[in-house]
Amino acid sequence: MQNVNYIKHLKGVFLQFSKDNRLNPTHISLYVALFQIWNNNRFLEEFYINREEVMSFSKIGSKSTYHKCIRELNHWKYLIYYPSHNPFKGKKIKMFNFETSSGQALVNSSSNIETSSGQALVSINKHIQTNRNNKNINKLDQPKNEKIVIDFFKKEKWSIIEAQKFFNHYQGIGWKVGGKTKIVNWQATAKNWMIKSEEIKTKENQKTVSQNMDNLKTSKNKNYNEPL
Questions:
Q1: Which residues, in sequence order, are bridge partners of residue 131?
Q2: I need a surface site. Which of 143, 148, 160, 203 has the fewest CB within 10 A?
Q3: Is there a single domain that holds both residue 94 and residue 15?
Q4: Res 226: pLDDT
Q5: What domain of life (predicted)?
Q6: Cα Rg of the chain (Å, integer)
Q7: Does 192 lie in the same domain as 157?
Q8: For the chain, how are helix, strand and coil distributed in percent, rounded to 5?
C-alpha cells in the first residue's frame, strides 16, 4: 500500500494533463475513473479492474475507445497496464504517484524530482525520450524520403510503382492511418499495404475468371452467331 496524498496527487497529475497536448477528454475521464478505483483499493501498489466497471465510471461507451485510451495512458507513462487473457482473473493496473513535495506535477526536466516521501521520480518526458532513443533505430514513424520506401519495397520483392503509390498516399495525408492516427512504424504499415494489395489482386483475378466462365456457358438454344 502506498502513502498517497489525495489532493497533492490530483493537483500534480492535472497540472501534467494541462501540459500534455496528446490527451483528450476521454483519456482524462478514464484516468479519473481508474484513480477512483485505486482510491477504493486504498492505493495498493497494483490492483485488478473490471472493464465494464471502468467504462461505466468513465462514461466510455466504446470498447475500442477504452482499449485505445488505456494503452496510450500506459505508453505515455501515466500508469502501467497489465492485460490478461484470463476472463476470471481480470486486468491489472499500477498507478504512478504524481504527488511532489510542493504539490507540483512532474514537469519537463532532465533531472529527477523529489517527492514528499523523499523518493525520486524521473520525469515522464525523460521516460518517453529514453524509450524513443531505444526504439528509433527499428521503429520509425515515417521514412526520410521516397528512395528509402522504394528500397524497402524492392527488398520485399514489390514493384517501384507500388512503393511510389504507398509513399505518395501517406505523404499526402501526413503519415496518419485513416488521416487521423499517427503512424508509429511505417515499415509495418507498408507490409499491411502489401497484404491488402495482394488481396485486391486476388479478388480481381477471381472476378475475371468467374466472368470468363460465365461467358463460356452454353445452352441448347445457344446462338453461335453471338460472340463469346
A1: none
A2: 203
A3: yes
A4: 59
A5: Bacteria
A6: 26
A7: yes
A8: 50, 10, 40
Buried b (16+ CB within 10 A) or exposed e, 80-90: ebeeeeeeeee
Measured CA to CA, the distance from residue 50 to residue 87 in angstroms comes to 10
Torsion over CA: 39, 72, 21, 16 (sign): positive
Do 166 and 60 have their domain in common? Answer: no
Model pLDDT, residue 219: 55
Domain identity same for 74 and 108:
yes
3-state DSSP call for residue 154? helix
Contacts of 66 (CB under 8 A, 6+ apart): 30, 51, 54, 55, 58, 60
What pLDDT does 112 receive? Answer: 43
- The residues with which 120 forms a beta bridge, in sequence order, are 114
The whole-angstrom separation of Cα 136 and Cα 192 is 20
Structural domain range at position 154: 146-216
Would residue 76 count as lying in a domain?
yes
| C-alpha cell belonging to residue 120 | 525520486
- Please tell me the predicted confidence (pLDDT) of residue 18: 93
* Angle at 189 (CA atoms; ends 185, 191), nearest 5 degrees: 120
Q: What is the pLDDT of residue 114?
A: 40
Q: Please, which residues have CB within 8 angstroms of residue 89's CB and are 6 or more apart in sequence?
A: 48
Q: Provide the grid cell at 4.
A: 498517497
What total number of domains does the chain contain? 2
Residue pLDDT, tens place only, 31-55: 999 999 999 988 898 999 999 999 9
Give the pLDDT score at 124: 43
Size of the chain in residues? 228
What is residue 1's predicted lDDT score, i.e. its pLDDT?
66
Q: Are 209 and 181 in a shared domain?
A: yes
